[in-house]
Amino acid sequence: MTANNPVTYNEAKKRYEMPFGHLVVYANVRKEKNTLYIDYVFAPQELRGKGAAGEFMSKLMDVVRAEALKAVPLCGYAASWLGRHSEYQDLISN
């Protein structure tokens, strides 16, 4: 599944979002200094098991890298996804 859509920050809802057609995958986050806390990642039921959340996480980590941030995955999904993707290990805050 490929959305070819960018991840954008929704200031009003304090979350990063990526549309997939009429549906949206998002992560509730908090930014403190140079750290992005990923509190919760959500994918609509219709997108689960289709790679949408994984694609979103990959693009979100590209944002983290581009903005010179460190990520703290508090969400279980985000933590397990990052654990499976060694190319993003340098972005995880210790």
Structure description:
The protein is an alpha+beta fold and 94 residues long. The protein has one domain (8-91): 3-Layer(aba) Sandwich (Aminopeptidase). The chain has helices spanning 52-66, 76-83; strands spanning 8-10, 15-20, 23-32, 35-42, 70-73. Strand 4, helix 1 (52-66) and strand 5 form a beta-alpha-beta unit. The longest helix is centred in the middle third of the chain and has 15 residues, at 52-66.
How many DSSP-defined strands? 5
* Oligomer description: single chain
CATH fold label: Aminopeptidase
Instruction: Tell me the domain tally.
Output: 1
Per-chain topology:
Elements: E1 8-10, E2 15-20, E3 23-32, E4 35-42, H1 52-66, E5 70-73, H2 76-83
Parallel strand pairs: 4-5
Antiparallel strand pairs: 1-2, 2-3, 3-4
Task: Provide keyphrases for this structure.
94 residues; alpha+beta; Aminopeptidase; 5 strands; globular
